[in-house]
Amino acid sequence: MKKIMLIILSVCAGIYTVWYMHFGSLTQNSGALSSTGLKHPVLFAVWGILVFTALYSNILYAYRVFSKPRRFQYYICAVSALGMALTLFCDFDYLKRTEYLLHCAGSLTFSVLTGVCVFLIFLLNYKNGRLYAVFTYIVGAILLCDLALLLIFKQTALIEAVPVLFALVIMPIHNFTDLFKEKANASR
């Protein structure tokens, strides 16, 4: 039952993200997810809660099932939740300087910590099979490319959504298919 719920949650978050992106331009700064949130605050809040829940439910499941016992992921999840809360409760409005800075700090905190958590799932299992090694590099490349594009073009819906959508797809595949399990067992 948990498996089905996590898959449905990820699919719903992915579909909602793509749908939410249609309210703004994909490639312009004015279409950034947070900018769109100024016009549609309730939809933005639903997006943030849904994406956070889907990502961290899958991330925490992956750490619990595929890693040695660790605790850092729970601390990262808590700080990331605080980041998402700041993102949702503080307006992305340049005129409200303090709120704007808190929003940006929250968004950056959520994005970086979530990216690090996903990357570490693959890195910590790097020696458990070639697919883990390949996805360590793929996730790292996506994060670095996204950072470079963010620095060059600033925030756009496409730049913000690609890592989120990738994680929403790869985490259920990792958690609930035999793709990674078979490779891990074959290497032993």
Secondary structure layout plus pairing:
Layout: H1 2-21, H2 33-39, H3 41-66, H4 72-89, H5 97-124, H6 130-153, H7 157-176, H8 179-186
Notes on the structure:
The chain is an all-alpha fold and 188 residues long. Helix content is 80%, strand content 0%. The chain is built from eight helices and no strands. The protein has helices at residues 2-21, 33-39, 41-66, 72-89, 97-124, 130-153, 157-176, 179-186. Helix 1 runs antiparallel to helix 7 (157-176) and helix 2 (33-39) packs across helix 3 (41-66). The longest helix has 28 residues, at 97-124.
Largest sheet: none
Which descriptor suits the 3D outline? globular
Distance between the termini: 30 Å
| DSSP, total strands | 0
Which secondary-structure class do the elements indicate?
A: mainly alpha
Determine the mean pLDDT. Answer: 89
Order of helices and strands: HHHHHHHH
Query: What are the segments in which pLDDT stays under 50 over at least 5 consecutive residues?
Result: 183-188
Percent of residues in β-strands: under 5%
Radius of gyration: 17 Å
| Portion of residues within helices | over 70%
How many helices in DSSP terms?
8
Structure, briefly:
By secondary structure, the protein is an all-alpha fold. The protein has helices spanning 2-21, 33-39, 41-66, 72-89, 97-124, 130-153, 157-176, 179-186.
